[in-house]
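#structure-requests
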Amino acid sequence: MDSKKLKSVLADVKSGKTSIDKALDIMKHLPYEDFDFAKIDHHRGIRTDIPEVIFARNKKTEDVITIARSMLRKSGRFLITKASEEMYRELKLKKAKFYPESKIIFCGESRNKIGNILIITAGTSDIPVAEEAEVTASFLGSKTERLYDVGVAGLHRLLNHKKLLQKARVYVVVAGMEGALPSVVGGLTDKPLVAVPTSVGYGTSFGGLTALFSMLNSCVPGIAVVNIDNGFGAGCLSHRINMLGLK
């Protein structure tokens, strides 16, 4: 449940459309619902404006489905990261969407998307992480656009999209290997930039550590850096920045 849903319930009580008993039933699992194996934080969307998200890795399929269905009943939506196709099939929800590359399942995304987040990748190998960021931000209500495969090995590809760069309120720049692209983009704009290192690269990339260190040590001021392959975190942060002044 988020603040918009809660306001709607209270408005219906005030107008007489919903009884007090029904409203109590809707809200009875605030702040959380206890399933023994999980305590679902239905209150999180009200507190932080970002609902609890299901991290599916190392979870049983049946447990993920139980949590997702509970969230759907209470708030009308859910987002699952690091999900499998088996989980998607077992959900048996026609309105749910599955993104195989980023391994995201979601249902009930925000329809009225606002602002503009530009998701940029250095290479095509970075797309799964970039898609996780984009789907997350879009689910939360941000308008997103993509600019893929414009890394520093062919910098002219990035410079050919100046209009697209100028439109954005926030950038998410995803890169592996040496992780240089966020510094390049950051040096071309005055907008907030979220850098995402990926585990793409050869031996001395050390599973993304080289890209992470490069981004953390960028000489361009004001770049925020999330963890390796953390597209979800980048999606949440860019969404929050994008919403500033728009709500």
